[in-house]
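W.,

You were right to be curious about this one. When I first looked at the sequence I had no strong expectations either way, so I just let the prediction run and decided to look at it fresh. Below is the sequence, 373 residues in total, followed by the output.
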Amino acid sequence: MRAYYYDNSIADQREAHDSGEPVSLMQLISLGVHYQCLSGSEEANLAAIDAICKVRNYKNRDDITISPTLLPNYEEKIKTFFAEHIHEDEEIRYILDGSGYFDVRDRCDRWVRIFVEKGDLLIVPAGIYHRFTLDTSNYIKAMRLFKEDPKWTPINRPEADTNKIHQAYIKSRNVVRSNDSASLWNCTLSPGWTQEEVQILRQALLRFGIGNWMKIIESECLPGKTIAQMNLQTQRMLGQQSTAEFNGLHIDALQIGEINSKKQGPEIKRKNNCIVNTGGKLTRDEIEKRRIAHREKFEVPAEVWKGIILSKQDSPHVVLERKREELKKLKAELDEVLAEIDDIEKSQQPQSGNALEDSEAISLALGTKRPRE
């Protein structure tokens, strides 16, 4: 998955339309868009799908394949898909093969383009203006998850402006609280973290459980990161400062962050974009009750988190040494080029002695040079 702002050019809708302005995963979450990469075995991925269905109360699923050979009136149909619209139910797609683009409106009514491919799972919230198109490969196969009676009838703009589901979405996403920034999730990266590292931490928390920092360090998936750095970034992913109620749980931290991003009211206070506890300190029993409730509601099945494979990453020192070697090679190449330029310049310098006199004589004979006084 890759997200960025749409460039609004008149090129074919299936082109990338990349403005060069990226959109972070946290920004997508602030819009209610949920993303997950299912990169395990087929069995593990299906188990993850089952867990999502259980949490979101989805009872049915089907597969859909779109291509010029399988969809009659293909060119006309994809233009229909690209019309700006809403649904009264959330739209959840797991990409089985191929690729395409989902475009969603941000809080300022700008188009955000989301590129999805095999293994990507995307949930587009009910009421958000969006559209879909294939890319230039003209092929995608996706699994659709839905309730018993899905409300997928597209309601196009501007008819949808007054729709109650759309109005509810606007209200939940566009209210700026006095104790919050304009967008809760725009600034949730801790210093020194990249979006790629956040995704690795997300998978590591699923694999080892919240708070099991030493296991994450021993896995070497995030070399150079300290326990304090991982704990701070986890707080920002969860959207709350206290992590005790999640300790040891194999959960998707960004799913909790999405839920916390919707909470508002006079009792909700935030610091550094994280909800803080303004009441009395929770007792051990109260924390354990919350933890049990979170396990029942959010913890992924063991067969899912046990199937997560975390790749070992090179340490910063190894990367630095590699870059130094690359720099040495580039310097050697530069020295060779400069030497060649020096040789060329020397060969083009004015001649002297008899050769210069012969050159002047030839010029006089041809009448192209005046004789010396």
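Here's what jumped out at me. The chain has twelve helices and 13 strands. And, maybe more interesting for your project: The radius of gyration is 30 Å.

Coffee later to discuss?

I.
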